[in-house]
Specification:
This protein is mainly alpha-helical. Helices cover 76% and strands 1% of the residues. The two termini are 33 Å apart. A two-stranded antiparallel ribbon has the order 1-2. It has 17 helices and two strands.
Length: 424
């Protein structure tokens, strides 16, 4: 990677780009679960992310390095079985998140065609991951500049949708939230929590950022605050624009359906283009962070992180592996199951990061109780998500157990093969 530094707006665009791409697949999912409580579900999920942002901001300033979450967990808990398992689980969750974005890219892309044969969706997904993989082989500076342009374009379209849609809202379609609907609202919030995850990617840019102590906290809080407002407003306009039955009929590209009475056919095409740009930029941002994982995890395990294999550096190898596995999941897994898997993985990771900051609160100059609160909320949210999955799709829970089991198994094999003492 290049040694060139990136400034506030490049990092801000990377953060927003990593988050807002999740809006397009999440919108239909959350409306299906929470119905007219979707705006509140987005606000609840955003609040959990905002609390966790405190830990990330403090840890990123204390450890401005490329490792991000990997480094935070290793610093707090050592490089034992606990942190090693969570690091691998984080990588698995990144792959799931990429699949979440790319599945939406394919769905929205196909809505532009007269033919909606599955082959076209799979072709679009495959082309998208190949394109973003190529872009991430460039320098960090190129990645930052591309994000500014992509994010500016898509936000312009989304703000136009909100502005024009505010005069088309039919209040009668947005029912007041009742006590009986709170369960579905909280369930919806947990399932689409993945749509806020992108802020974690900011931590991976810390080493490339100009004046990280000043820049990073401003980026974290402004990104999350902006996205919460954006998500809630878009959900309100979507629900008010068309009957919920019509929105659910086009669940995979709900925002396009909502845009038709507001912006017309041309406007719905613009929304589709924004969705394509959003999911591409989110994939770009995610790959940018995950490409560094192989060298960081290798270094934490005592390997030479600067080594090359057949002339290719370890971060590039990690990029290729991540892209290959993403192709499989994005093409063959259901979007609801992908969302649940990813949300569960990141809720567990965020609980651990909050605990890491609570453990190092003196070093990071933090208020310990805030991070303990964040850890507790993440664990409660994870419990609610698992309970919901058991009620609606028990197979998803087994996939989650499999992900965690594989992560633990790889770590145990590493210790046994290297004849090292197994410790937490």
């Amino acid at each position: 990677m290049s040694s060139k530094k990136i400034g506030f707006w490049s990092v801000w665009a990377l953060g927003v780009g990593g988050i807002v791409g999740g809006l397009f697949p999440a919108l239909g999912v959350v409306i299906q679960i929470a119905h007219t409580g979707a705006p509140l579900a987005f606000a609840i999920a955003g609040t959990i992310a905002l609390i966790t942002t405190y830990a990330y901001a403090k840890l990123s300033v204390a450890h401005p390095c490329r490792g991000g979450t990997v480094t935070f967990l290793n610093q707090a808990f050592g490089s034992g079985l606990f942190s090693g398992t969570l690091n691998l689980l984080l990588w698995f969750s990144y792959v799931v998140m990429l699949s979440f974005y790319l599945n939406a890219f394919g769905s929205y892309g196909v809505s532009l065609f007269t033919s909606t044969q599955p082959i076209w969706k799979h072709l679009l997904i495959s082309l998208a991951i190949l394109g973003t993989t190529g872009l991430n082989l460039l320098t960090a500076n190129h990645v930052g500049k591309s994000q500014i342009w992509i994010v500016s374009f898509k936000l312009g379209i989304l703000i136009l949708f909100i502005t024009m849609g505010s005069s088309h809202i039919d209040i009668s379609r947005i029912e007041p939230v009742s006590v009986s609907s709170l369960q579905s609202i909280f369930s919806g919030a947990m399932v689409i929590f993945l749509s806020y995850e992108g802020f974690e990617l900011i931590a991976n840019t810390a080493e490339d950022v100009v004046n990280p102590k000043y820049t990073l906290p401003r980026v974290y809080y402004s990104v999350i605050g902006f996205v919460i407002v954006l998500y809630v407003l878009i959900a309100l306009v979507t629900l008010g624009a068309k009957p919920i039955e019509q929105i659910l009929a086009a669940k995979d590209y709900a925002l396009v359906e909502a845009a038709k009475p507001i912006l017309g056919q041309f406007g719905s095409v613009l929304i589709t283009i924004a969705a394509l740009f959003s999911t591409i930029s989110a994939s770009n941002a995610t790959l940018y962070g995950s490409a560094r994982f192989s060298s960081i995890i290798a270094k934490s395990r005592g390997f030479d992180s600067g080594s090359q294999i057949n002339g290719i550096d370890q971060s590039s190898i990690g990029l290729f592996i991540t892209s290959s596995i993403t192709l499989i999941i994005a093409n063959f897994f259901d979007i609801n199951r992908i969302s649940t898997m990813g949300s569960a993985g990141f809720l567990l990771i965020f609980a651990a990061v909050n605990l890491a900051n609570a453990r190092m609160y003196r070093y990071t100059k933090s208020k310990q109780w805030i991070s303990f609160l964040g850890a507790g909320i993440c664990l409660i949210a994870l419990g609610m998500l698992i309970w919901f999955a058991l009620q609606t799709d028990p197979q998803t829970v087994w996939v989650l157990v499999f992900m965690l089991g594989v992560a633990i198994g790889i770590e145990v094999i590493y210790y046994l093969s290297n004849k090292r003492q197994l410790h937490l």
